[in-house]
Amino acid sequence: MRTHCALCCVLLLAACASQPAAPAFHAPQVTDESATAADSQPLALEGAPDTAASAAQVTHTTDTTDDLDVRHVTVLVGGRKIHDNTADDLDLDEQLMLGAGIDMYDSGTGHGFEAGLEGSGEDGRANGHDVDLKLFDLYGGYRYNFRVQDQDVHPYLAGGLALVRGDLDVGPDDDDDTLGAYLRAGVGFDVSEKVRLGIDYRHMFADLEFFGDDFDANWDQLAFSVGFPF
pTM for the complete prediction? Predict the structure, then answer.
């Protein structure tokens, strides 16, 4: 009996010894490639704005800037030479002119517009009568400002339409209105951040009628200008 029990114990121990040992626990290893890949991925936070959407919003904000970023109010003083022969005969063809206008344009492209009001007049005496001629025009048109290396010099060209009104008094008085067109050229000089001085030439194409006769209201105009930014 004892021999039988001893034999059973030996067989039990041999069976236990024949079972494979449980594998040892090893901590997972993180390779350099895995760490690099993880570092290259942006950290996604709940509620954080999307990068592409943010960039689009910044671009949209930039594009909404004011295109007409250069603006001036300008006063002009100069002279006009009227082409009409009657004005020349009455010695009313050379006139003092005054005007005021605005111009606005994009400093990046040079494209813009202008508008204003100008007037001139001259009086004298002919055939024993006082004579007087006045010409006014309300104008508006396109204006291009050239971009040059010197940022304080601003040459420009312009053209547009004008509502012209004339008043001729030679004893009897008559007036007329017409639609004309003009071309202009000039240059401005920034003498300070708040003042721009310039020289301006303008030619008007217009025809009026006084006392049933045609009046050549074409004129050449040369003026000095003083501009103030706003």
Answer: 0.71
Token duo for residue 1: 């009996």
Half-sphere exposure of 17 (CA within 13 A, CB side): 6
Left (φ > 0), alpha (ψ -120 to 50) or beta: where does 193 sit? Answer: alpha
Separation between Cα atoms, residue 210 and residue 95, nearest integer Å: 18
Q: Which residue has the higher pLDDT, 26 or 150?
A: 150
Neighbouring-strand partners of residue 188: 154, 198
Residue 75, judged by CB atoms within 10 A of its CB (0-12, 13-18, 19+), counts as middle
The 10s digit of each residue's pLDDT in 137-189 is 999 999 999 988 899 999 999 999 999 999 999 989 999 999 999 999 999 99
- State how far the Cα of 197 lies from the Cα of 66, in Å rounded to an integer: 25
Q: What are the respective helix, strand and coil percentages of the chain, to the nearest 5?
A: 20, 55, 30
Q: CA dihedral defined by 20, 21, 26, 28, rounded to 10 degrees?
A: 30
Alpha helices in the chain (DSSP H): 2-18, 32-40, 51-63, 85-89
**Are residues 96 and 227 in contact, defined by beta-carbon separation less than 8 angstroms?**
no
Which of 190, 209, 187 is CA-nearest to residue 198? 187
Task: State whether residue 204 is helix, strand or coil.
Answer: strand
Name the pLDDT band for 127 (thresholds 50, 70, 90).
confident
Confidence of residue 58 (pLDDT cuts 50, 70, 90): very low
The two structure tokens encoding residue 46: 């709940």
